[in-house]
Design goal:
Blueprint lengths: L1 E6 L5 E6 L3 H11 L5 H18 L9 H20 L1 H7 L5 H11 L3 H6 L5 H31 L1 E2 L10 E6 L2 E5 L4 H9 L3 E2 L4 E4 L7 H15 L3 E3 L2 H9 L9 E4 L5 E5 L4 H7 L6 E3 L4 E5 L3 H11 L2 E2 L1 H16 L28
Parallel strand pairs: 4-8, 9-13
Antiparallel strand pairs: 1-2, 3-8, 4-5, 5-7, 6-7, 9-10, 10-12, 11-12
Helix pairs in contact: 2-3, 5-7, 8-9, 9-10
Amino acid sequence: MAWYEVNYSCGHSDRIQLYGKHTEREKRIKYLEGTLCPDCYRKKMQEEAEATTKEFEMPELTGTPKQVQWANTIRADTIKAIAERKDEYVNKREISEFDEIFGHLVSDFRNASWWIDSRNMSNESILAQAHESLQQAPKREAMKTVEAEALEEATVYPEKQIISTPATIEIKENAIYVFFDKNQDLINLMKLHEYRWNGSKWVREIGKMNGEIVDRAAEIGNKLLRTGAPIRIVNNEARQKAIDGSYEKEHLRWISWQRNTRNLVIKHERSDYLYNQSKQITGAKYDRDFHAVIVDSMYYEEIEVFAKTHGFRFMDAAQEQMDKERQSRENAKTVQPVVPKGEEIGKEGEILDDLLDEK
């Protein structure tokens, strides 16, 4: 191992470290002296890439600055190599649509990362991908038109807008996703309706207690419109309900069952009145884990009165537990206890004849 001074053909010099036999080092130095230094070589590659890009009138690539710089060189080398072998591809490989495929490759493959990922592919494979993409182009264009028309139909604007870009509302399985341009009023609205930010969209999972998911999507859409945000809902039913307010309002008062216990959980909107009323049920107590009042189902009669009075609904499991308690009470043995002899008691203030002292 040793350090050597190398004088490149561009006039620049540099110290490099070489390994191996002395004769091999000499050969390496001689070779390097006939080349450009690394900086000049990179500059040459960039100039050649720019010249090829201009020659074939290629569009700018998209990506980070470093990705674009690297991909420009890869694309230029590939396009130039394919163009130089045009006769071979047309005559020997019988690619009759070469000009169309080549033009598509030059004009429409604008993603820098695609060129970087394809740098080790053969030119034949690249042409094959361009050919397949060209065949799909009419379908893609048609789909773009259909998509644009569908999105236009799905978009509704309020008379007074606080944002210009529509808030998108999507229904996916058991959740609703909402996204809009940042606006504090809309953010506050999402939080008020129990939506959480997942890093890219506002999301709320919808369960049995929340009602139909279409109604919940319509409800948040209606709230957004009334706040001043245009909305985009592909679901026709949800969109129409959001416009005319015909959705079923979310029921917030529920009694559910705490699994594997006899406890029922009383859930409701923020209300000191309902909280105090629920605490009047025998044995009722506040549970910090559920953030709600819980009560033993053995007091089902009081619970039913409370629910009917204040408009609470029972989840299926809670109702089953209530029915179980009722059935258990009905099946319990009912007896008329016998008064032991000598403990008979008459009417208030009356002494039975056989208990009177003899005179």
